[in-house]
Fold this sequence. Notes:
The complex is a heterodimer of chains A (402) and B (330).
Chain A: E1 8-11, H1 13-31, E2 42-50, E3 53-61, E4 64-65, E5 75-76, H2 78-91, E6 96-104, H3 111-121, E7 128-133, H4 147-151, E8 155-160, E9 164-167, H5 172-175, E10 186-189, E11 202-210, E12 212-215, H6 219-230, E13 233-234, H7 237-240, H8 249-252, H9 255-285, H10 293-305, H11 313-355, H12 376-391, H13 397-400
Parallel strand pairs in A: 1-3, 1-12, 6-7
Antiparallel strand pairs in A: 2-3, 2-6, 4-5, 7-8, 8-11, 9-11, 10-11
Helix pairs in contact in A: 11-12
Chain B: H1 8-23, H2 28-34, H3 38-47, H4 49-52, E1 59-63, H5 64-76, E2 81-91, E3 94-107, H6 116-131, E4 138-144, H7 154-167, E5 171-175, H8 177-183, E6 188-193, H9 203-206, H10 224-230, E7 234-243, H11 245-264, H12 267-270, H13 272-291, H14 299-327
Parallel strand pairs in B: 1-3, 1-7, 4-5
Antiparallel strand pairs in B: 2-3, 2-4, 5-6, 6-7
Helix pairs in contact in B: 13-14
Protein name (chain A): COP9 signalosome complex subunit 6
Domain JAB1/MPN/MOV34 metalloenzyme (chain A): 7-120
Domain EIF3F/CSN6-like C-terminal (chain A): 219-345
Amino acid sequence: MATWNLSTAVIHPLVLLNVSEHTTRVLALTKTGKSSVPPFVCGALLGLQTENRFEAFMSFEFLYEGASQGNGFATINPAHFSQRIQQMEEVFPDNTFIGWYAVNTDTTITPEIAKIHEQLIRQYPSALLMVFDAALADGAAENSATQGRGFSLPFSIYETRAPGRVDSQKLLWYVSGNSSDTPSEYYVEASTNREGVVMDDLIWASQLVPIQVQLDSGEAERVAVEHVQYVARPTNADMLNSDSNVPSVSLNASRMATFLVSLRNALDMLDRDIALLKTYVGDVISGKAVFDPEVLQLVQRVLSNRPVVLDDKFFDLAASQEETNFQLASYLASVTSVAGAVRDLSQRSNTALRHGRTKHAPYVNPVQSDGMFAWGPSMGDMMSAFGARGHSGRGHGRFSHI
Amino acid sequence: MQSNSSSGRAGSALKLFELENNILPLNQCDEELYCFDEEARTQQLVEAPWKSNPHYFRKVEISSVALVKMVMHARSGDNIEVMGLMLGKVIGDTMVVLDAFALPVEGSETRVNAQDDSYAYMVDYLEQCQATGQKEPVIGWYHSHPGYGCWLSGIDVATQALHQAHEDPFLAVVIDPKRTMSAGKVDLGAFRTLPEDHASGSSGDGGSNNAETGGYQSVPLSKIEDFGVHSAKYYPLEVSYFKSTLDQRLMERLWRKHWIKTLTQSPLITNSEFTTQMVNEIAEKIDTFNRDSKKGVAYNQILRESDAIAQEITQGHKSQALKQRLFCDT
């Protein structure tokens, strides 16, 4: 990217799922003719801004007012907007308005979107704009033609630059709608106050610049999102059919299986990415690919970091302690379960004996006599001891840096 | 890059038209689910088949967005119980949860109850949902039980019974954020209460088939009494989850960026506190059992708990071992 800038936007999956839900709902309503409003999907992004890092945790919908009123361009309802913000801040006090989203069939800005952005930056001069690409390329049908899009995230985020004086021609693309092409640079008018205009062809405007985007999730979010990924079924006919008794297989799969599958998938992705980098580096060496110093530098950095911990005795110690903890826990669990099984057996045989040849059989009451859990207190002590040790979580942190 | 036709405005109108018609993956079922049908709802309320049969509702379908919202909200409360409401509809004997939102209420221990000012919040919020086309009514409430499993306490039962009496169809969902984190799997239960005069013997058929937890709930010793007293007054519903076609494609795309998290996060470290607590809990239960086996602690329950915790630790260890083999072996 030609423009140099340092801002980063971090988007959480919840925001994307919310946008997806909003889009689906609006389209469903429009298709069945239950909505009078044209299908324009937009809403607010809420999150945190620390210096030039924006992090969006959640979103809500704008009340969109159709293009019929006023100057022919759509607006959002300001009363609804401010009330919603207040509500969200009451429940999630850390989050503030950081920008907004609009849905399109690619990630470019349309005149409609620019018009709304102009309305918003009067109140929030640094508002971000996320354009969500709802025409997601199908993952399965992906081929070389769509590969570029398939690998990128399905949205772009634009930052509003501090306003400056620019040629009014640059605003024509959305003000009059006369421009025949999508512009290479997006400018929106920063203020309606035209007193500052020195010459007629200069206008006070802000540029919209695409910024770097990252995807992040909290741990609870990751678990929930993975659940959506593997357990949730796509909508299908049996869901609406109340008679169907189709058992969903994934729900019954054991926890361990689910866990191992997600690990396997992650390794698969790692493998694919490494293979991709390897091919690229190979191609650069053989002169088939373009030499990109930035990419190669990153590869170099990763490689030099690779043997993170070798021959570190603290690391080994922590690892072996963890191993011991794990083995002890499994061992205790097996002991407990064997004890349980033995108790079960003794109870059953006692019952059988009581009803059978009662007089000659020895009878042990597992409850009244010291029974099968006689060693229980000492096992309890062992467990508490284990618990206390597990608590201190020594150098475990090292693993997470790998 | 797509170029706009002669007039910019007409051009984008055309784009939106495409968006509406063929580009978006929207199937018949998505339409049926996400489109609110006022008439169908009125019809259902008139018929109200759930009034004659207390076990009428059998299944719950939760949308991806509702699930993520609820789990994150529950987690954000940490040790404090949080609550919110769910929006959705009824299809046959299934309650479909389409969306959820948080309420500004924080409970403590086993008491969660919406206060008066939160009602005002709720009414405002719902009005605004209506305005943006989200016309589904409230179909239930959710709250969190951090660390003590998914079941309804006495107060929860009372709250739920009240709602079921006055605004049925109504559903109660309980999430345990701590167990969700520790197991790496969403721990969630959905319940409906049975009427007062309903024979308590029915707990046999419904009491043990909660699909999500494999039919058992491990309840801490301190709460076992509360659990035992009220467990016959409600029944669990079978919970499943769905995602729209668009969600499906989005998830496929996101996974390309997301997998790193599976490798970098370590459940052993993040859950060490919870694991310790669980192990202590099991030890305590064994003690109680030895002293007096009639006190409501069933030994097979202890077994299942110890199995579960051992399995969680095994999972954590497996992922660490895998990472070690991958990155640290020379």
